[in-house]
Q: What sequence folds into this?
């Protein structure tokens, strides 16, 4: 399996799509964060905690796009050029080909995901330290749970890509998988208040937005000035079910993906 992983990394380094995707993700994130950045400038509150409070909801919406664009490509780019066929012909078991792609795509999406998510917070920390607006432990817990959602979405993308045997079709299914559940829950919210919050643990787009949204605040006093104190705390009634559902769904996606891949005609 290590040889297959090395081969995947070698190819990814030379795949221009990966670099274009990362630039697009960075640009998309910056566009989405414009309002939050303007608020930070207006408030003159430059700190890591305040940056997360202002930009968290946007970052939550942005988070699932990372595995959609990157994992779909990593898992499905080589169906067309027969690389998978060559791996089997050279004696690599199919399970090695499958798990190598899943592992590589998971590690890459986690690394790139955290780099992009932490970038605005890091800039805030450089400008004004972490600040007293939000406990650092609260932010660390939320960021740690982001990894579960990235892994879950990555497993979903691997399943979609191996089922369609094409990276573009897999990416398309991934985008639909993000869009339609969010739209459906939004419409359901109109007719039944609170339904979106109840369903959020089942849909990655809603769960990531809920996880990084910090909306409740009050005013406090520190260092001889008034400051904003974020009172929003992660609710165990949301976090625990989200973790359980994510673990179960990840296992289901991986099992289905491997079952399809093992039986696929890759010649």
A:
């Amino acid at each position: 399996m290590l040889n297959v992983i090395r081969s995947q990394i070698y190819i990814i380094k030379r795949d221009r799509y990966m670099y274009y995707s990362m630039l697009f993700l960075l640009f998309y994130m910056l566009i989405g964060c414009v309002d939050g950045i303007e608020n930070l400038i207006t408030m003159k509150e430059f700190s890591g905690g305040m940056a997360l409070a202002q930009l968290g909801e946007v970052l939550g919406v942005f988070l699932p796009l990372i595995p959609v664009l990157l994992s779909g490509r990593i898992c499905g780019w080589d169906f067309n050029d027969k690389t998978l066929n060559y791996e089997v012909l050279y004696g690599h078991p199919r399970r090695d080909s499958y798990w190598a792609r899943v592992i590589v795509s998971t590690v890459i999406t986690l690394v790139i995901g955290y780099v992009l998510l932490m970038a605005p917070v890091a800039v805030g920390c450089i400008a004004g330290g972490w600040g007293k607006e939000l406990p650092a432990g609260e932010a660390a817990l939320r960021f740690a749970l982001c990894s579960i959602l990235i892994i879950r979405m990555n497993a979903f993308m691997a399943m979609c890509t191996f089922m369609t045997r094409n990276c573009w079709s897999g990416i398309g299914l991934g985008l639909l998988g993000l869009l339609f559940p969010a739209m459906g829950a939004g419409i359901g919210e109109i007719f039944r208040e609170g339904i979106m919050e109840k369903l959020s643990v089942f849909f990655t787009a809603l769960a990531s937005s809920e996880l990084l949204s910090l909306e409740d605040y009050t005013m406090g006093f520190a260092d001889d000035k008034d400051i904003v104190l974020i009172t929003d705390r992660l609710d165990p009634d949301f976090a625990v079910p989200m973790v359980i559902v994510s673990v179960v769904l990840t296992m289901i996606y991986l099992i289905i993906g491997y079952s399809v891949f093992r039986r696929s005609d890759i010649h």
